[in-house]
Amino acid sequence: MQRRNFIKGFIALGACAICARAAFADEGVHWAYEGQDGPEHWGALDGANAACSAGSQQSPLNLTGAIKADIPQIGIDWKVGGGTVINNGHTIQINLPEGSTLTRGGKTYDLLQFHFHSPSEHLVEGKTFPLEVHFVHKNRESGALGVLGVFLTPGAKNETFASLAAVFPAQTGGKASVKDVEPNGLLPASLSYWSYEGSLTTPPCSEIVDWMVVREPLQVDASDIDKFTALYPMNARPVLAPNRRFILTAS
Q1: Cα 153 from Cα 132, distance rounded (Å)
Q2: 3-state secondary structure of 77
Q3: Could you read off the pLDDT of 45-96 as tens digits, one per residue?
Q4: CATH for the stretch 2-250
Q5: Which residues pair with 27 in a beta bridge?
Q6: pTM: predicted TM-score of the whole model, two decimal places
Q7: Of 6, 58, 107, 129, which is least surrounded by CB within 10 A?
């Protein structure tokens, strides 16, 4: 805990070069999800990625053995607006304009972007899901990140996901502008969630993330899932050891 607070302190002072890039995947050194540049080698690819191998609060986790607790409710105030859909070589990412926020326990986080992983990075009692979307937020005071994860599963058509899937850029570096991105459309009815302290799931794996993983999956059309997996059939980091961390959920 002391180590985590030390890192957050550096962020607040603007002195952590690694953490300053933390909302996005590190593009300085090539990395991948398989082979010699895969997750088991991330820590050795660049000194900036040391936490990937040496960190003790790494993500994702298998969400099991959760402790019921009085955790704060999540408040969502996301705006509809224009956005940019980017194929960054590791995922499809949607960058958003300023103005959308998430609040939790008296803390306010600004929504920066959201992106997708296939299969889901977090597991639930060992179960995986076809997709997981990560909404990446940054705390205004500390600079720490708050990431809200939502599992996506085949079912009824979801208009928000369908509209994005229709313009997923096929080539790395490709971009598409969208006029009316409605991130609220990718939220299920209930925001009951699991909570734990962890890290980015991509290099540099900085341990500065307050994780909130929504318990209720969201249905999207299977054909729209296929549009993502045709580009990225596997872009999920394997689960890591909890190392005595508590996974909390609402009582």
Answers
A1: 9
A2: strand
A3: 999 999 999 999 999 999 999 999 999 999 999 999 999 999 999 999 999 9
A4: 3.10.200.10
A5: none
A6: 0.90
A7: 6
